[in-house]
From TrEMBL:
GO terms for molecular function: electron transfer activity; heme binding; metal ion binding. PROSITE patterns: CYTC (PS51007), WD_REPEATS_2 (PS50082), WD_REPEATS_REGION (PS50294). Keywords: Electron transport, Heme, Iron, Metal-binding, Repeat, Signal, Transport, WD repeat. It comes from the Bacteria. This is C-type cytochrome. The keyword Nuclease does not apply. It comes from Bradyrhizobium sediminis. The keyword Repeat applies. Pfam families: Cytochrom_C, WD40. WD repeats lie at residues 33-74, 116-147, 157-188, 280-321. Residues 334-435 form the Cytochrome c domain.
Amino acid sequence: MFRPRPQCRFASLACVALLAILPLVATTAFAQLRGHGGPVRALAISPDGQTAVTGSFDSTAIRWSLTRNAADQVLRFHADAVNAVVLLRDGRAATAGADGRIAIWTPGRTEPDAVLEGHSAPIASLAASPDETMLASASWDQTLRLWPLTGGAPRVLEGHAQNVNGVAFAPDGRTLVSVGYDQSVRIWPLSGPAAPTVVAMPSPLNAVAVGGDGEIAAGGADGRVYFLTGNGARTGDAAAGPRPVISLAISPDGALLAAAGIGGSVAMIDRKTRELARTLVGPGLPVWSVAFLPDSRTLLTGGADNIVRRWNAVTGEPVDSLLVEAAGDPLAAYAGDRGAEIFRACVACHTLGAGQANRAGPTLAGLFGRRIATAPGYHFSEALKRLDIVWTPETVSKLFEVGPAAYTPGTKMPEQRIGSQADRAALVKFLERATRK
């Protein structure tokens, strides 16, 4: 579901993803792309399959050469996670962030050509119109905006009752499709002031894709993919897995739909039969983004381990054997520890031990006795730097008793609380043991 902020939106504990601007490290030897300092939240591939752009919780976007398997440029502008990216046919890229802004980039330039502002909450999704004259953005401020790429004020579409998590254009460019946490699919006519067609769904929706034939696919928090005609008539559904679907992509030839899940796998669904054709299984961490290459056989996935992986979508095999390397269980040594189980939701964002690197959030090694926003090698917000807090068992417990918004105002940490005093005590005891240097 998309209630928490995007840094670790399905986590039950603190998965902080602030501004982790880490050095660029790219490999040319293997099919995977390494360079981000946080989970890869967004993926877009150029029509010729030569270039990709990725967005990450580390607040950067990277333009990649897919022929060299190497980074061409790091795009640094956003003040928060980059949740959505689009590549235009002329080579320009659009990036949108949890800071509510959209940046338009020309290849090679270090600053955006234009910045589009208007949303008052994180932008979750971007789409370009088929003729590439407009961008559509979906935001947690419950609105969509249509931005003319030649300049001018955006058109604002209102009606969703909760976060808008996905947006896509119909192939003819006449309608716009949006999905949200309010369990609705909305089909917006783009000519004239007509009201949208609203289709009630059985689950909150996290993602949407539209095929070349106009069929709509919506990914649900219940682990299912729902199919609708371009007019909004439901035509069926398919089970992608037991965990929420958070990203969708339809192959250019229209045969396959990739549904990525918070559980770490990608379901390949045959669009004709609505059946699960195969499952791509990686290291078990959330898969935040998926995109097909033009050959319709190759799929790129962006994961919570900061890596972009390349797969044969037809066989289900990774292109490179290293893509299925074991991630290991960082909490294996704490089996049976109640505090470790409470913390488990955050291992994708935080490391615990001395010598382990920052991830989307800072390492917690040496946490106790450290002043807030002083972990080495991590870029914290100015709001956190101004707080007079030292992390102790009491302050960590207080953080989860009253919630981050009240205790650390200005944080980008998901709003959450641990109501049980016993669970808070178990978590603190675990962290005292696990974070000692």
